[in-house]
Amino acid sequence: MPIEDVISSKGRVRILRILTEIEELNISEIARRAGLNYATANQHLEALENAGLVRCKRFGRIRIFRFNRENSRARIIKKFIEEWETNK
Amino acid sequence: MYHHFSVFKNESKLDLNYIPTRLPHRKFQRTLLNQFFRFTVENPGEMTQRVLITGNVGTGKTVLSQHFGLDITKEAEKKEINLNYIHVNCRECRGSLFMILQRALLNFHPHFPKRGYSAEEILQILIQILDEQNAYLILAIDELETLIQIGGSDTLYKLTRVQEARLKAPQRLSLICILREPRYLNKLDSSTRSTLQRNIIRLDEYSTSQLQDILKDRVDLAFKHETVSTSTLHFIAELASSENGDARYGIELLWRAGKYADASELSEVSPECVRKAVASVYPLVQKDVVFSLSSHEKLFLLSLARCFKHSKAAYLSMGEAEQAYAVVCEEYNEKKRGHTQLWKYIKELSALGIIKTELSSFGQRGKTTYISLPRVPALDLEQELAKILSTENRRSNTHAD
Ligand SMILES: Nc1ncnc2c1ncn2[C@@H]1O[C@H](COP(=O)(O)OP(=O)(O)O)[C@@H](O)[C@H]1O
Ligand SMILES: [Mg+2]
User: Fold this and answer.
1) Which ligand is nearest to the CA of B61?
2) Residue B28 buriedness (CB in 10 A; 0-12 / 13-18 / 19+)
3) Long-range contacts made by residues B151-155, C-beta under 8 angstroms, separation at least 24?
4) By CA distance, what is A26's nearest residue in B?
5) For the domain B208-281, what is the CATH code?
6) What gap in Å lies between CA B321 and CA B261, rounded to an integer?
7) Looking at residue B221, what is its pLDDT?
8) Residue B156: its pLDDT value, please?
9) How far apart (Å, rounded) are the C-alpha atoms in residues B137 and B208?
């Protein structure tokens, strides 16, 4: 996914912000906090997962998402957001 | 701002949830617990364990388990073993196995969703998490009565079966069951019951002197130097001992008595503060009981109340009580009753729970009977008695006219 696609979507940036703050979360909660409906949140999360930025873990029927710490781009984006948030 | 002196130096050491570094008189049971769980820091995964702790209220079941939990996880950490101790109270979880397991789950994933999975799934999820993190868990299930009552008898069985179903996988989940009433064991399936009966740690009620040791530790931690005398400490220990050796009650009294000392701006916790504390926990002496005493019993009790009101001592010798009684009789123009009669009063009043007697050799003078006023503040008692006696007096005077 080209960088424009990541950063140009309000929904995706919101999700990334939420995941920097809270280590890991399930879809319903991510959707609720981001103010998105479930299907949209799901789409964004799938896109972010394909880009290697987030990872999904399954527990039975429950899916939990978190930043992909193993991915260097994800780490940089996390840092970038944290920097942005703390020095307003 | 003006700050009055406080008898406390660190009140938090009297918190119910505070875990002291020392547990006097539980050394043996503490060692036993360690032995049962030795394997968790030596060959974790090789086996699991199920242990039962039983004993009356305030015998230290909860604190014993938590103390162990703190130590064993520290030891595991040194050996780089991911051992977790989680303490869950079944009553707080309303007897639901789902909620109990959810507490455990949230320990590993604090933002795990609260809904969307069944009671059957949650156990699988928990085991999956333990596997993924190569973690081991000692789950302490406190006040197990509620789980058995509400969750049913096979809930514990579910917890053990989940291990047995995983034949070659490492064993990750061990249990400490905490139960006040061992008779609840009969409601469990036979295999769980027999395991628990093999690994049982029984806590007996504390004696007065044991309670005194426990309370002494707390006094040193929570109170300033020389604000709680040995006599006051003994008094509280006695009271807790007569409440079935309940250490929690003793600590509660200690704390409340300290609060009353501060409120009265005293530099020391007096026995009267302790009596106020007792009355505030639950008032036991009712006014009608006092009212129904014979008039000389009332006079005798009044004399005791007057002695105790200002005294730093929690105990009064029989001799001192007799003298005080003589003075009060003179004041009320009554002929004092003899020694044997006073003994009867003492027996009667202690049967009613208003006073307590103790045969003791405090001094060098051999055995003497000591009287204490455990439950009512002396001041309240004095005022109450004076009121009743004055109405009685007036009535008998009108008769005489
Ligand atoms: N041996 C002990 N040493 C120090 N404190 C104790 C001891 N036994 C009990 N306590 C304290 O007494 C109170 C009641 O103990 P707790 O473990 O809650 O009893 P139980 O769970 O058996 O009802 C707690 O504040 C606890 O810290
Ligand atoms: Mg308890």
Assistant:
1) 1
2) exposed
3) B151/B90, B151/B95, B151/B96, B151/B97, B153/B187, B153/B188, B153/B189, B154/B189, B155/B97
4) B113
5) 1.10.8.60
6) 25
7) 97
8) 85
9) 37
- Amino acid B1: pLDDT: 46
B280-319 confidence digits (pLDDT tens): 876 556 677 788 788 999 999 999 999 998 888 888 999 9
Contacts of A26 in chain B (CB under 8 A): 111-113, 116
pLDDT score at B201? 96
pTM over 0.95: no
The parts of chain B modelled with pLDDT lower than 50 are 1, 399-401
The domain B287-400 having CATH identifier 1.10.10.10: the answer here is: yes
Q: Which CATH number describes the domain made up of B27-203?
A: 3.40.50.300
pLDDT (mean) for A45-57: 93
Q: What is the pLDDT of residue B152?
A: 76
**pLDDT value for B59:** 96
Inter-helix orientation angle B155-164/B190-198, to 10°: 80
Query: Which of A24, A25, A62 shows the shortest C-beta gap to B116?
Result: A62
Question: In chain B, which residue's Cα lies nearest the Cα of A24?
Answer: B111
Closest residue by Cα to atom 15, ligand 1, is B60
CATH topology of domain A3-86: Arc Repressor Mutant, subunit A (1.10.10)
Which residue, among B108, B109, B125, would best test binding to A if mutated, counting the most A CBs under 10 Å from its CB? Answer: B109
Segment B389-396 long-range contacts (CB within 8 Å, at least 24 positions apart): B389/B295, B389/B298, B389/B299, B389/B302, B389/B332, B392/B295, B393/B332
**Rounded CA gap, B65 and B200, in Å?**
13
Angle at B89 between CA B220 and CA B204, to 5 degrees: 55
Annotated domain spans of chain A: 3-86
Alpha carbon B87 to chain centroid, angstroms:
19
Model ipTM value: 0.74
Which residues have CB under 8 Å from B354's CB, separation 6+? B285, B289, B290, B301, B373, B375, B376
